[in-house]
């Protein structure tokens, strides 16, 4: 199979983890950022996690440099636009990009202008390359709750302009969901969909809580349900879509190696699993490469990849009209 030619849907991709190395070098120069070297390999090492990464927390350190470069409207717009362009090159038909607006306030930007900048880049990319997209606003667990509410209140203005969902992300703690029940009370009323990072580092009860308490329709990662019958059955019975990122999971030590990733079992058990990159640059992987690696190690067949694509369309936070167009691409799986 030529995985680059197969149509794909990407539901879990962080903007700040997907900046091009070449763009980072240009923006370092533009922003006069002090750094030891502008050598390509040196900057790449700053952005890409080592294969021997020891934990999720160590993985998250690779976002330090990108965030320093994402503090202006122009830079945010450019990076969003380039991610759409990169998606086009991978034959991604629809992508949902996620980012945390509160991480881009260091130079005086307001939350609304931050969101607008990313949406402009995505819209420009869609017009030029035809890739449909949606924007997910992330709330990070270590940030103040009142700022989380602010993101939700401001972000709702843009739901008809490209914002599609709210996410909770960051280093995972057991039982974190209950703390956000009141903050999420009105999100569905506002028109947001909900996807939650949960069950990434072993806490399957977080998946149960994300669904039952916060109304999550999708779960980021969710691999911990493999060893929890209650969580597994809940995900299956409610048709919850899992945004699965095998390479990232290996790097963060959520699993030891590709062979241990549960996506094949989940597909066999009719759980709506999808394949995603998490972070193109930090994980040093394209969606085509993720598909190819998973196939090589787990032996997925064409029907499996067709199911992954259909699961992605099913879980996409887009209109019925866009879903209908996306499903036409199933005929391309040959």
TrEMBL record:
Active-site residues, record numbering mapped to chain: 200 (proton donor)
UniProt keyword terms in alphabetical order: Hydrolase, Metal-binding, Nucleotide metabolism, Zinc
Gene3D superfamilies the UniProt entry points to: Metal-dependent hydrolases
Reaction(s) the record says it catalyses: 2'-deoxyadenosine + H2O + H(+) = 2'-deoxyinosine + NH4(+); adenosine + H2O + H(+) = inosine + NH4(+)
Site (Important for catalytic activity): 221
Binding residue positions for substrate: 14, 16, 170
GO cellular component: cytosol
GO biological process: adenosine catabolic process; hypoxanthine salvage; inosine biosynthetic process; nucleotide metabolic process; purine ribonucleoside monophosphate biosynthetic process
rRNA-binding listed as a keyword: no
Domain Adenosine deaminase, chain residue ranges per copy: 7-331
The protein's Enzyme Commission number: 3.5.4.4
InterPro entries, per database record: A_deaminase (IPR028893), A_deaminase_dom (IPR001365), Ado/ade_deaminase (IPR006330), Metal_Hydrolase (IPR032466)
Cofactor(s) it depends on: Zn(2+)
Top-level lineage group: Bacteria
Comment on bound cofactor: Binds 1 zinc ion per subunit.
Any one Gene Ontology molecular-function term assigned to this protein's record: 2'-deoxyadenosine deaminase activity
Keyword set includes Chloroplast: no
Residues that coordinate or bind Zn(2+): 12, 14, 197, 278
Protein family per UniProt: Belongs to the metallo-dependent hydrolases superfamily. Adenosine and AMP deaminases family. Adenosine deaminase subfamily.
Name by which UniProt lists this protein: Adenosine deaminase
Protein's organism: Clostridium thermobutyricum
Taxonomic placement: Bacteria, Bacillati, Bacillota, Clostridia, Eubacteriales
Gene designation: add
């Amino acid at each position: 199979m030529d995985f680059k030619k197969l149509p794909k849907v990407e539901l879990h991709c962080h903007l700040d983890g997907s900046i091009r190395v070449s763009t980072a070098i240009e923006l370092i120069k533009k922003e006069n950022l002090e750094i030891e070297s502008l050598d390509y390999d040196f900057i790449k090492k700053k952005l890409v996690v080592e294969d021997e990464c020891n934990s999720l927390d160590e993985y998250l350190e690779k976002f330090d440099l990108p965030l320093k470069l994402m503090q202006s409207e122009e830079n945010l717009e450019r990076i969003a636009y380039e991610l759409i362009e990169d998606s086009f090159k991978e034959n991604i038909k629809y992508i949902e990009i996620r980012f945390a607006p509160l991480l881009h306030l260091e130079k005086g930007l307001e939350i609304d202008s931050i969101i607008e900048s990313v949406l402009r880049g995505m819209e420009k990319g869609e017009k030029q390359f035809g890739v449909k997209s949606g924007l997910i606003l992330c709330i990070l667990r270590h940030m103040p709750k009142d700022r989380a509410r602010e993101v939700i209140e401001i972000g709702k203005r843009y739901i008809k302009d490209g914002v599609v969902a709210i996410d909770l992300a960051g280093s995972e703690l057991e039982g974190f969901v209950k703390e956000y029940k009141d903050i999420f009370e009105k999100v569905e009323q506002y028109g947001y969909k909900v996807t939650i990072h949960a069950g990434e580092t072993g806490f399957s009860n977080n998946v149960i809580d994300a669904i039952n308490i916060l109304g999550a329709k999708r779960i980021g990662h969710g691999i911990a349900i493999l060893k929890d019958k209650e969580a597994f059955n809940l995900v299956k019975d409610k048709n919850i879509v899992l945004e699965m990122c095998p390479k990232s999971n290996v790097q963060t030590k959520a699993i030891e190696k590709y062979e241990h990733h549960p996506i094949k079992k989940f597909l066999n058990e009719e759980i709506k699993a999808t394949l995603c990159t998490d972070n193109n640059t930090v994980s040093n992987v394209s969606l085509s490469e993720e598909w190819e690696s998973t196939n090589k190690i787990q032996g997925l067949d064409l029907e499996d990849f067709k199911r992954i694509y259909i699961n992605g369309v099913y879980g996409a936070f887009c209109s019925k009209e866009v879903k209908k167009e996306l499903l036409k691409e199933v005929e391309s799986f040959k």
